[in-house]
Structure formats: C-alpha cells, structure tokens
Amino acid sequence: MILVLMILSPIAGALVLGLFGHRKIAPVLNIAFSLLTFFLTLILGEEVSLHGPLIALDENLFADSFSSLFLVITGGVAATTSFFSLRYMTIEAAHGRLTPERTRLYLALYQIFVLTMIVVLASNNLGLLWVALEGATLATVLLVGWTRTPAAIKASWKYFILCGVGIAQALFGTILLYFASEKTLGPGGTALLLTHLETVKAQLEPTVMSLAFVFFVVGYGTKVGLVPLHNWLPDAHAEGPTPISAVLSGLLLNVALYAILRVKSLADGAIHSAMPSNLLMGFGLASVLLASISMWKRQDIKRLFAYSSIEHMGLATLAFGIGGPLATFAGLLHMTTHSLVKSAIFFAVGHIVQTSGSQKIPSIREVALRTPGLARALLAGGFAITGLPPFALFASELLIITEAVKRIPLAVPFLLLALFVTFGVLIFRILEISEGGPSLTAKPVSSLPKLTFFPIWIHLGLALILGTVFPATLYSAYQKALLVLGGPLGG
Amino acid sequence: MAASFVSPPTSPLVGFLGSALLLSSFAMLSMRRMASLVRIFALQGILLTLSTLSVALAAGEPHLLFSALFTLAFKVLLLPILLFRLLERLHIRGEVEVLLNVPVTMVAGLFVVVFSFALAAPISEMANTVSRGLIGVGLAALLLSFLMMITRRKAVTQVLGFLGMENALFFSAINATYGMPMVVELGVAFDVLVGTFVFGIFFFQIRETFESFDLKHMDNTPTE
Question: What global pTM score does this model have?
C-alpha cells in the first residue's frame, strides 16, 4: 500500500505541476509534493525495518532494507533540492531568463525524474527497472539543455546518445538474464522478478549470466559514469541548471549503481567465480585514477565537482567489487555521504555561479568574498568531500583503503596517490575561491536570506553525524541492508 | 552473405527473414541519402513483423501475434511517418556525411558479424526456441547499429542508429525467449516513443542554435 502511495505522490505532482506549473504558487507546490514523497519514503523505511520486505502490485513493486535505504536518501535529497530549486528559479526568473511556461516544464520534469528514480528503486521487475532508468534519462535530457546555449545543447545531446547507447546494452543484458531464468522459472512475468530470481540464482546458467552481467555493467555503468564510459558526465553536470546537477550527481548515479548491485547479487550466485567482483574493481579503480588526473587543470567549478563525482562513484564501485561485509558497508556509507555532501556543494556552487554569472574559478572569487556565508558553506563542503575527518567520507574512505590493502595490495599505492591528488586539487581550488582575491570593489552583500543556506547545512550536518556518532537506528538500517547484500558486520 | 554463418534453424522461413534483417542492417550502414535511410528503417520494421509472425506460427506462441501487430503499427507506420514528417519540416534532403568511407565500414561490419556469431554460439546451443540460430543475428544487428552511430556525423543518422539498435534488441528477445513479458515490451516501446519525441525537440533546438545538423559544428563548441 505504502509502496503504491509513494509512487503515486510524484505522479500526482507531475500532473498538477504539468497543469498549473506556470502559476506563481507552483514552485511551492513542487516543494509540497517532494516533501510528501520524502515523508512516504520515511514511512516505508520504518515499515520495512519493522516488518521486513514489502511487495505490491502483482509482485512488480518491492522494497527491502537495501532499497528502502536508497529510497529514503532519494526522497530526502529530492526534497531539499526542491527548496533550492525554488530559490534558483526565482532568481533565474528575476533575470528574465525564465518564462512561466518553461518553469512549468521544469517543475513537471523534476517530478517525473523523481518518479522514475523511485520506480527504479522500488521495482521488483528487472524489465521495469530498465524502463524506469531509461525514463530517468529522458526526463533529464531536456533539463540538461535547459539554458539552450550551444554548450548546453551539445552536452545534452552527448548525454542522450551515450546514455541511450549504454542503456541499450543493459536491455540486451536483461534479455540474456530472462533467457537464463526462463528455464527454471518458466516463461511469463515471474522470470524477471528479483524476489524469484534470488531464490533460484544458483541454478542459472553461468555462461549466459557472465555475458549478461558484462552487458549490465557496461549499460548501467554508463549511467554511473564509470571510466571509460563517463564521457557524458562532466558536460551534463556542468551545463545543466545547478539544481539538476545536484540531483544528477547526488541521486541518479546512486540509482544506477544500485541496479548494478542488484544484478551482481544474482551473478555472484550463478557464476561461482570472481569475475563480477573483478570487473567492478577494474572499473572502480580506472574511474578513481582517471578522475583524479582529469581534475588537475579544471577551471570550471561545476566540471571540477563532476569529476569528483566520477571519483567517488569509482571508489564506491571499487568497494563493492572488493566485497565482504566491511567493504560493502563502506560502499553504502560512501554512496550515502556522497549524495548528501555533493548535493550540498552544488547548492552552494549554484548560488555562487548564479550571483556571478560565471563558472570559471578566477571570476567567481570576488563573489565568494562578498557573500561570506556561501564561502563558508563551500569550504565546509570541500572539507567533507575530500574525506577530511570528522565527516563520514573519511570513515568510508579509510575502510575502503584498509580493505583494499587486504585484497588488492598492488593497487593501493595508485589509489592513495589518486586520493592525494584529488585532495590537493580540490582544497587548493576551494581555498582560492573562499579566500577571495585582493579586490577593492568587493563589499559584503546580504541579499541572500538565511533560508538559502539551510539545505546545505542540513546535508553537511547529516554527513557529520554519520561520521561521528552514527546513531543506533541508522546503524541497524545499514546492518539490515548488508544482510541483503551478503552478510552483516560483526559486533 | 550472412546466412552461411547461421546454424540451420527449424523453420527455413524464420532463417530467411533473419538473414534479410541482417542485410537490412548492412544496407542502413551503406545508405548515403537520408530519406532512403528512413525507408530502409521501415523495411526493417516489416521484416521484424514478418519474422515475429513466423516465429509465432512456427512455435505456436499466440502472444507473439500481438507483438507482431504492435511492431507493424509502431515501427512500420508510426515511427517512419514521424521521421518523414520531421525530415520534411526541417528540409533535410542532403547526403549522409560519413567519417569512415563506406567500403571500410562494410569490412568493419563483417568483422562485427563474425565476432557476434562467435559470442552467441554458446548461447544458441542452450536455447530451445525454433529460431535459436538467430541470436547471433540479433547481436550482430545491435553492434552494426552501434557502428553506424559511431561512423556517422549527422544527428538524424544517429537517431536512426539508435532505433536500429532497438529493433535488434527486440529481434534478439523474440528469438532467444519468444519475447519479453508483455509489460516490459510495452514499457520499452513507450520509452522509445518518448525518446523519438525528445529527439524531435532536439532537432529544432540544434538547428536553431547551430544552423546545421552536422555534429562537427557541435564539436567545435568550446566547452571549457
């Protein structure tokens, strides 16, 4: 019941905003619907943790402790981003860059985007999961090209084509999986249902499953932004409006990685070899290394943080490839914190870029100086994203490295080097911005109300809590998610 | 040219249609004019319909009849009509500009086909459908469309490559497993339809911004 309600909420949102999105009240309605969706995901998380997995709608919808964790994250970040959107869109409209009609399209597409991500996470049917993930691309592709500058259109075309090609590979993977499972589960609907597949995964044909898994990783990996399939990501993140950069980076990448993890669990059961893990480790390591090299000379602040997203998704993928309870826990924690911190950074960057009208680091220095609140937020976010204690990314990166030392010692020097490089580059750039240049014209402006900053500090505060106290309820939520993915942590 | 690679399937008609589909993928790869490309795409839709129909009859799977009907409506009528109207409204008549000349592309295509059949051979042995020899054809058609997207410069051609890919996937699903569950097939078709509309919107935006559909103008746009 709650599963269906949770999906109906963004559907209703999309319909209402599609009809009335041009009214003045619409951005507030967007917040209301996003909050409602978030509230429903929280109830769902509570239900799942109390009564175990839920199933609805002819077994097509399903939520266990693993998916409910990501549902709550998705609901939460989508809600805070809707607050940020309100502010962002108001300023855009004030600059005359936005007509009511285009606001309507933006808001409706935003709700559809949230809907597709929630359907991916709540889908028990791997075919529907594919449909929803492709839907997520379709919903965001017009949002990425929102500003209609040549660079933005180029970015969204690249995004569309590359993700379209990628996701076609994943559909071939789905066909192969269906081909393998149909033999044991029989033709018809149940052969693509995760819950049924999990019970028979040991009987699935290993050769077909290996091939299927490769197609899945290439397909969904394109959406995660794994190197060498990452080419669309920096452009899409840099050229889209900043609220969209925040949800693309903070949520969509997670959702795609979630899909890979679901398939990996099946492949592990069927193949009895280290191939799936090795494949993920290879992609993860390549992403971390290449992203750190690419960050070196970036002058565009959104592009810089887009490469940082590739790096962090690579780290999480590496962690899941290493496997075992500790590394898997680290991967989950890493994905959670990355969502929170990266979207917080994009909120701060969004305000800075909007005030200055540029994304180039030299020209936004002065703005940062004039709005010290934003500079402080960016500095804190920068410390959090580079993995400094006491933020939770420190804990997850430390865990990933210690597990890597045990499993793949030869790769550890490269990993450490890459982490040092990204740390150095990001801290250097952020200090450059937040300290500001010597400028005589700069004077503090206080046009930004306090309300602007609250999503940023909520996200960073949560990242801090996860890195320090880690409340017992959250801990048990992660433990239960780990149960789905293999085994719980000892102690 | 491809039929010799196919292990003889139970129904010769199914095998013949499969080979014809592979040929049409090659034809798409070699076409120089935009309108002929759309025509070949429609022809591929017809082949897909016939092949689905023949598998349905040979295997006695009635639900495939719906898939065939659906393919006819969607890929032979709706999408080509949409594409032709798009070409007309945007006044696209020109030639397809290629990155790699046609003979080289064809040779590359041949290698793709051999590779696909090698990859699909173990799967074909496990399949128990009447058309199992054609799984390799599906994979080959998928990769040929992929090749087309890589070697063509114009936005419209890339879209046709994209749609060709979807055809190949549908064909693979039919031949390996008698099609995916209905709800999935409908969902995929819905995505493709929405995707085509989004492509349409894109064409107008691209023309407005770059005054050309040649992606090289896009490539010259500085991003940083």
Answer: 0.92
